[in-house]
Design goal:
The complex is a heterodimer of chains A (266) and B (148). With 266 residues, chain A is an alpha/beta fold. Helix content of chain A is 37%, strand content 10%. In chain A, strands 2-1-3-4-5 form a five-stranded mixed β-sheet. In chain A, helix 3 packs across helix 4. The longest helix of chain A is centred in the last third of the chain and has 15 residues. By secondary structure, chain B is of the alpha/beta class. Chain B has a single domain, classed as Rossmann fold, CATH 3.40.50. In chain B, strand 3, helix 3 and strand 4 form a beta-alpha-beta unit. Classes of the chains: A alpha/beta (266), B alpha/beta (148). Chains A and B meet through helix 5, helix 6, helix 8 and helix 10 of A and helix 2, helix 3, strand 4 and helix 5 of B.
């Protein structure tokens, strides 16, 4: 990605941005996030199929904001998160420079959030068939078996909150789970606390999640928590039509239609 | 062995269902005594965490009720609540939490009889389903550990 490096150098030299948020080689075969403030370090920038971390998470972190205006390396999942953050008024167009990367690994410039939206309209969120199949299988279980399945799946969770830290949309500075008066959710690795934590996390992402799988990738125990958000994504599409961030629309749960349909309210 | 008496908690809005339940009382309509009513300003205020907490604290069933659509005291609280319920119900169903144990309804201040009917039918449903032992087992995990 020589082009990416050249672009980064130019941006830093012209002082249009103060920090480049990108990917670099990490431990072993893994990649890591890098925050470049000097042009000499720009050569460390890489981009390949291993770069799956969602960098948009850093846009709302105060430590990173302190570094100055960022330029961010943005493959499709990051672009979706940026757009969602824009919808939620967390960032404005002047706050950042987006170094977009197409699925063909080509560099693409975005002048505005509207341009990102136009680009993403040709790259809609699609839930892969294998996940759809898993969700169908889980839903086909009898209700008690399904409950036992999830209690077992969530059992390894020790509440490190890596899923929360990795999610670009979990940007609240104070979370319900940190609250201890009253304590809503037990901090112990306890089946009830685990269940409540994952329900809460999923519900707070309802209609907002952009399906980047950052939570699942961050989970040290590989708990399939992305299935919960993927399932909700399907529910949103089923009940409220199209899915995905859009600048002229409010979030699904921040808006309503007087004729929303349901079948369970008496 | 004594017959199982379901413990049911009802989260209702101040303006419609609470007034409706009041009317049930003043109309002297008799209904099942298993329900404990908690009054909220609006259905939009009823956080899903409260429903989870109810199950965690040993409720066998839950009723959530508010103003009919277009009748909300705050214009749109129940519309927002409805969307949230749709999403919440889908999530609970995915996780294997028995959605039959949560009854959602619209009860206006004039529908005292409907309130009695909702409570009675929910009590009957929960009576058939029995106590929510699966959730109790999960909720009582720490106590069990302490005993052992």
């Amino acid at each position: 990605m020589n082009e990416l490096i050249k672009k980064a150098v130019a941006l830093l030299e012209s002082d249009s941005v103060q920090v480049i948020i990108g990917y670099a080689e990490g431990t072993g075969t893994r990649t890591r996030a890098i925050f470049i403030t000097r042009t000499a370090d720009c050569e460390n920038l890489i981009f390949d199929s291993r770069c799956v971390q969602n960098l948009a998470v850093y846009l709302t972190k105060s430590e990173i904001k302190k570094l100055g205006k960022p330029a961010i390396v943005a493959p499709i999942p990051v672009l979706r998160s940026i757009l969602q953050l824009a919808v939620e008024n967390q960032i404005t167009e002047n706050d950042l420079v987006v170094l977009g990367i197409t699925p063909q690994s080509e560099l693409v410039d975005f002048e505005s959030f509207a341009a990102i939206e136009a680009f993403l309209s040709t790259h809609q969120i699609v839930i892969e068939e294998k996940y759809q199949e898993t969700i169908r299988e889980i839903k086909a279980m009898p209700v008690t078996e399904r409950f036992a399945y999830w209690v077992k799946e969530l059992e390894p969770c020790f509440k490190c909150y890596a899923c929360r830290a990795a999610c670009p949309l979990c940007y609240c500075t104070r979370c319900t789970v940190d609250n201890n008066q009253p304590q809503w959710i037990s901090v112990a690795s306890h089946p009830l606390g685990n269940l409540e934590w994952h329900i809460m996390r999923a519900m707070h992402l309802a209609g907002r999640c952009t399906d980047c799988e950052a939570c699942y990738n961050a989970c040290p125990m590989s708990i399939p928590i992305h299935l919960l958000t993927k399932n909700m994504l399907q529910d949103v599409t089923e009940n409220f039509g199209t899915y995905g961030p859009s600048l002229d629309k409010l979030n699904t749960l921040s808006s309503f239609k007087p004729d929303d349909k349901e079948s369970f309210i008496r | 062995m004594t017959e199982f008496e379901p413990k049911i908690i009802a989260f209702v809005c101040n303006w419609c269902t609470y007034a409706g339940a009041d009317l049930t009382g003043t109309s002297r309509i008799k209904y099942a005594q298993n329900v404990k009513i908690v009054r909220f300003p609006c259905t939009g205020r009823i956080d899903f965490m409260l429903l989870l907490k109810s199950f965690g604290e040993g409720a066998d069933g839950i009723i959530v009720s508010g103003c009919h659509p277009n009748d909300c005291h705050y214009t749109s609280g129940n519309f927002h609540a409805r969307r949230r319920w749709i999403m919440f119900r889908g999530l609970l169903d995915m996780l294997g939490i028995d959605v039959r144990r949560i009854q959602y309804s619209w009860v206006s201040a004039a529908e005292g009889a409907k309130w009695a009917d909702i409570v009675n039918s929910t009590v009957n449903t929960i009576r058939e389903l029995g106590p929510y032992t699966e959730y109790e087992k999960v909720a009582g995990y720490l106590e069990k550990e302490a005993k052992q």
